[in-house]
């Protein structure tokens, strides 16, 4: 078996199992039992002042309802790296925290991986991806 085929199998093997795998792996991922239904009524609340504008509209935004369930976007209490974010998903709420557009984009990528048909896996995720800058040598 060639080395590249073996590496490919090792990379994709976790994706074929029943357990949830996030790529890239966040610093903290704690899966809990249950799911947040995206097909049931919930309120979409953006408290970011524009940082997350249009990132979640297509996949998660909803007209307001009288439901106690909520999908909330808010600025994080502590400033970390520009791409840092936190997700807290329960059966009644989704809370996305970040301090920059890049952080909300990273959180959105993770949410799309957690999406299962019309629901999101309940969990806690915390990550602060490091930003890499390309350096050109002349």
Q: Your description of this structure?
A:
The protein is of the alpha/beta class and 138 residues long. It is built from three helices and seven strands; from the N terminus they run αββαβββαββ. Strands 1, 2, 3, 4, 5, 6 and 7 form a seven-stranded mixed sheet that branches. Strand 6 (115-116) and strand 7 form a beta hairpin. The longest helix is centred in the N-terminal third of the chain and has 14 residues, at 3-16. The model is unreliable at 5-18 (pLDDT under 50).
Which features would summarize this protein structure in a list?
138 residues; alpha/beta; 3 helices; seven-stranded mixed β-sheet; globular
Strand content: 25-35%
Task: Tell me, briefly, the overall form.
Answer: globular
- Figure out the total of helices: 3
Low-confidence stretches: 5-18
**Radius of gyration computed on alpha carbons:** 17 Å
Major sheet size, sense and barrel closure: 7 strands, mixed
Number of strands: 7
Brief synopsis:
It contains three helices and seven strands. It has 138 residues and is an alpha/beta fold.
How are the elements arranged and paired?
Blueprint: H1 3-16, E1 28-37, E2 43-46, H2 57-60, E3 70-75, E4 85-89, E5 93-98, H3 101-114, E6 115-116, E7 119-127
Parallel strand pairs: 2-3, 3-5
Antiparallel strand pairs: 1-7, 4-5, 4-7, 6-7
